[in-house]
Give the backbone structure.
Amino acid sequence: MKRQTMVELVLFVGMVTACVLLRLALQDLPNFAPVAAVALFAGYFFRSALLAVCVPLCAMTISDLMIGGYDPRMMVVVYAMLALPVAARGFLRRQLPMGDRLGQVWKPVAGLLTCGLAASLLFFFVTNFGCWLWMGAYERSLSGLVHCYAQALPFFRYTLAGDLTFAALLFGGYGLAASLVPTAKCQLEASA
């Protein structure tokens, strides 16, 4: 097995395992989870977009088996919105070149914040629209939709905090490793 493939396999298993364990440990904090951040990092790191999409989907599937499921339509929407950040891979790879001098840190930070914020906002708007549409808890009118979004705002702060916290930890940790161990940087360059 090639070294690159072995590194990706170990990272895949490690990311899914860590994501599941964190999601289970933090389930009392609604929507504060590493899943979207892991999807962003997987899209950035893995050579295969399909493999990258499998990271958040596997983490969600395994942890939902332990936590419990919910309406299948909503599960599809939630899973899709948590896999969507992988699509930012090209943008992130352009914005976050590892190994740049510290003085050039604002461009990568702005790129990561943009992607994290976009993932959080898309998740908020799409999943709550699905909730309004299918769950029957809100009146099927514009005022019902607005009420649904208003009721979801307290959860949004946890989503945003989780996405940005875990993205900073993942990308910051990888950036630190890449600066300390030259082969870590070569790993990403080979996967691009």
Q: What stands out?
A: The domain at 3-191 is CATH 1.10.1760 (Arp2/3 complex 21 kDa subunit ARPC3). DSSP finds eight helices and no strands in the chain.
